[in-house]
């Protein structure tokens, strides 16, 4: 099998590692202990919240997911994943992916390939026709995606590959896809093990189940966005979807579309899904200039709402922009300029807990000095009070979210102002050449990263030749 891989790598918590090794941190110091100090006694309800209601999703499970055990513990996760593919207001994301033409902008270096937006000038009936086509194409994926669970491989949570295959389609199928190709989505069996082990999913709290189901479901659709692309084009060279997207990662583009941010899990040392944090889908260099990439807290109440039918009724009518991104109560940056962590918050009560952490770091540093070992983390913590409103503002421009109305809404498309940024494009030696952007090379990217303290906690994709 000749195939390319699209890796989805997960949290890198390396503390001040400038080497190209993407290893787990040696100690819990760094961002995880900062988050723990800020959220002491779970004051922001990032782990447990008695007020959240049980899930009530009973929507049909999309045929794409029929490979999974639809009646077992994954049921709630599959209902959520299916909601992401159920409504016109969310399916609209896939229209440019399937119907956009590849265009090249010559005034950027390297030249940027992106997709036209067929919705811009579409009439209501053309729009409906394309949405019908999206539904047909997604049904086609039910017999042209293979799912597999794989052994955990470093920080890879999921990845998409291509595989040549005999014709799997019928005359009733969408003709928009490559005909002799299928997509393979590999998922870490970390997800699976939690559902089946004795002290896993069934023994967990409602909130812990929500976090795991949320991460799994959003990971599946993140990968399906890649799979739609490879089935359409026949390769893994993703152009940008919109001309001013910060990069060409279609999975992130989908997360930005639906959540208005990228949501990732923290501490991976325990089974299940630990608390979630979010970041802006923006340009890394611009973020560095602006004082460092910002990571903000994601409350359980935000996560829990996705499991309620009422939320989906709102999204069906008004689109995903009707659901506001999580309200941040603290933000963490690692500032190269100051060689320090910067914590911004609207809650003054966290200050003494940050001070305690700082003292602990100083003690650790002193004991390392005795051993003549270099400390691997900055022990400086800067603190900043910001009112709640100000705290919600990002330090970098972010792609505008496309508004939805049940009628033609090209105004939103035309007026969407997106950040203009240089794409950090990485050419993989094994990638086919071309003007398109290969799925962003995570390893190459991490080699280039020069931040003093590396708190990258993102999932990125990579193209590799098997
Ligand atoms: Zn088909």
Summarize the structure.
The chain is α+β, with helices and mostly antiparallel strands. It has one domain (4-465). It has helices at residues 31-38, 75-83, 88-91, 94-99, 124-141, 189-196, 206-233, 250-259, 284-289, 300-305, 309-318, 351-370, 388-391, 410-415, 442-448; strands spanning 4-9, 102-105, 112-115, 145-150, 156-164, 181-188, 237-238, 262-265, 276-279, 295-297, 330-335, 340-345, 381-385, 437-438, 463-465.
Describe the protein in words.
The protein has 466 residues and is α+β, with helices and mostly antiparallel strands. It has one domain. The protein has 15 helices and 15 strands. The strands form four sheets. Strands 8-9-10-11-12-13 form a six-stranded mixed sheet. A hairpin with a 6-residue loop joins strand 2 and strand 3. 46% of the residues are buried. The N terminus and C terminus are likely disordered. The structure holds zinc ion. Zinc ion binds next to loops.
């Amino acid at each position: 099998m000749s195939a390319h891989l699209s890796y989805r790598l997960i949290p890198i918590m390396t503390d001040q590692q400038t080497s190209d090794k993407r290893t787990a941190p040696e100690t819990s110091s760094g961002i995880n202990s900062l988050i723990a100090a800020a959220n002491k006694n779970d004051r922001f309800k990032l782990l447990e919240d008695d007020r959240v209601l049980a899930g009530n999703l009973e929507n049909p499970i999309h045929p794409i997911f029929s490979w999974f055990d639809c009646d077992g513990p994954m049921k709630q996760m599959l209902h959520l994943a299916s909601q992401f593919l159920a409504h016109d207001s969310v399916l609209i994301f896939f229209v440019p992916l399937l119907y956009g033409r590849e265009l090249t902008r010559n005034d950027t270096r390297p030249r940027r390939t992106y997709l036209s937006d067929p919705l811009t000038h579409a009439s209501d009936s053309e729009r409906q026709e394309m949405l019908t086509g999206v539904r047909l194409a997604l049904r086609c994926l039910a017999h042209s995606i293979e799912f597999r669970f794989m052994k955990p491989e470093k920080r890879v949570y999921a990845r998409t590959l291509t595989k040549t295959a005999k014709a799997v389609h019928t005359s009733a199928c969408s003709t928009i896809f490559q005909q002799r190709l299928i997509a393979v989505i590999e998922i870490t069996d970390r997800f699976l093990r939690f559902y089946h082990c004795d002290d896993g999913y069934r023994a967990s709290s409602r909130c812990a189940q929500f976090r795991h189901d949320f991460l799994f479901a959003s990971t599946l659709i993140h990968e399906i966005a890649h799979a739609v692309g490879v089935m359409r084009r026949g390769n893994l060279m993703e152009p940008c979807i919109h001309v001013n997207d910060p990069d060409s990662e279609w999975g992130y583009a989908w997360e930005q579309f639906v959540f208005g941010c990228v949501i990732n899990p923290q501490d991976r040392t325990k089974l299940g899904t630990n608390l979630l944090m979010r970041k802006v889908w923006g340009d890394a260099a611009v973020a560095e200039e602006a004082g460092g990439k910002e990571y903000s807290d994601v409350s359980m109440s935000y996560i829990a709402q996705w499991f309620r039918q009422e939320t989906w009724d709102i999204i069906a009518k008004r689109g995903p922009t009707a659901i506001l991104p999580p309200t941040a109560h603290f933000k963490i940056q690692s500032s190269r300029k100051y060689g320090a962590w910067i914590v911004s918050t609207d809650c003054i009560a966290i200050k003494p807990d940050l001070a305690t952490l700082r003292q602990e770091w100083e003690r650790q540093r002193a004991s390392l000095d005795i051993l003549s070992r270099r400390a691997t983390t900055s022990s400086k913590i800067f603190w900043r009070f910001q009112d709640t409103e100000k705290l919600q503002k990002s330090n970098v421009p972010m792609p505008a979210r496309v508004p939805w109305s049940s009628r033609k809404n090209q105004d939103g498309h035309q007026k969407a102002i997106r950040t203009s940024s240089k794409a950090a494009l990485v050419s993989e030696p094994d990638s086919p050449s071309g003007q398109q952007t290969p799925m962003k090379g995570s390893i190459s990217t991490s080699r280039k990263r020069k931040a003093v303290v590396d708190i990258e906690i993102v999932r990125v994709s990579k193209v590799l030749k098997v």
